[in-house]
Amino acid sequence: MKLRQQILFLGLASSLFAHADAAQESSSKPNAIPAKAPSDSSSAGLALKNLLIAACSQNQTEFENFLTVRNKEAFSRMTPSARIALMKRFVLLNEPGKATSSVNPSGRPIIRCETPSVTTEMQLGGVELRENLAFVPMELRNATDSTGADVREIGLGLVREEGEWKLLSLGVLFLDLPALESEWDEAQIETTEKNALQALKDIASAVESYRKTYQRLPDSLANLGQPLHGAPNKDAGGFLDSDLANGIKNGYSFRYVIVGASNLGAPAKFELSATPLRYGRTGRRSFFRDSDGGLHAADRQGTVGGASDPRAE
User: Which of 9, 91, 157, 288 can bridge 296 by disulfide, Cβ–Cβ 3.0-4.6 Å?
Assistant: First the structure.
């Protein structure tokens, strides 16, 4: 997707101007704290470079290291799809990319984020320090654009927290995830629900693979997970990732039930369900696979679905 089609930035809460003005006013007073040493400029620029690299690769663990304590806690509560959507806004790419860094002839850092379809290039400008705030201009462009017609200039703000630089703003908008985490999750509900339905299909396929391999149905989802050591076996068949084998993934809980008194042989059947962990945040629809393989979906207000629900589209 072209950059100009992806330039919808974060819908965040309040302006950063008040912070900048307050810092400038304080620095003009007789007892104001003196400007930070040049090394602070380097550390702020390095923090921002590493944040952009994490956003490029969609590495959630690395990205959250550059969030304030308040925002980091909110980030951890967001659904995985909402966290990824947030990181996408920093590099304007839909896919995870491969990040490389270099410097231009003037020594300014350049971060390239390469995906199979598009490569973006982000060049950081000089860091402006105002007490515990740092402001860094950034030029973002399509790496194949030699005309410079699609260059975007963005200012990013950092704040010093416990001796380390953390993300404060994108553009002139203040990053306040606790105030917006529910909105971010809700914006990703369609994606989360789609993933939950696909996960239900993946579990059903894994159950049938287990039946074919061991001539019986698994006793639980745990029997479909990866073995801790050695080759797959009847206790850990290696058909599902650890999250699905534990029954929780991407904001949904999954339940597996054997239908009938026996789990032996082809006649044995099973049912599956997928229910949002936090109704209205991680999903609205509950999904159900009946014993004949039919898929159903309905808004059950967060309760388990059933075979009487409408067929899933």
Answer: 288
Quick one: which of 137, 134, 122 has its CA closest to 40?
134
What pLDDT score was predicted for residue 184?
62
Give the CA distances from residue 7 to residues 1, 151, 183, 260, in Å, rounded to whole numbers and listed in that order. 10, 11, 19, 54
- Tokens for 256, please give them: 């597996």
Please work out, in degrees rounded to the nearest 5, the angle formed at the alpha carbon of residue 182 by the alpha carbons of 171 and 201.
Answer: 115
With a cut of 50, which residues of the chain have pLDDT below it?
1-38
- For 181-215, write each residue's pLDDT tens digit: 666 667 778 888 999 999 999 999 999 999 999 99
Angle of CA points 242, 248, 250, to nearest 5°: 100
71: CB partners within 8 A, 6+ apart? 166, 167, 175, 176, 177, 178
- Beta strand 109-114 pairing with 119-124: antiparallel
CB 158 within 8 A of CB 143: no
Q: Which residue has the tokens 């995906």?
A: 115
- pTM as predicted: 0.54
Cβ contact 293:309 at 8 Å: no
d(CA 282, CA 143): 36
User: Could you tell me if 174 and 14 are in contact, meaning their C-beta atoms sit under 8 angstroms apart?
Assistant: yes
pLDDT at 6: 36
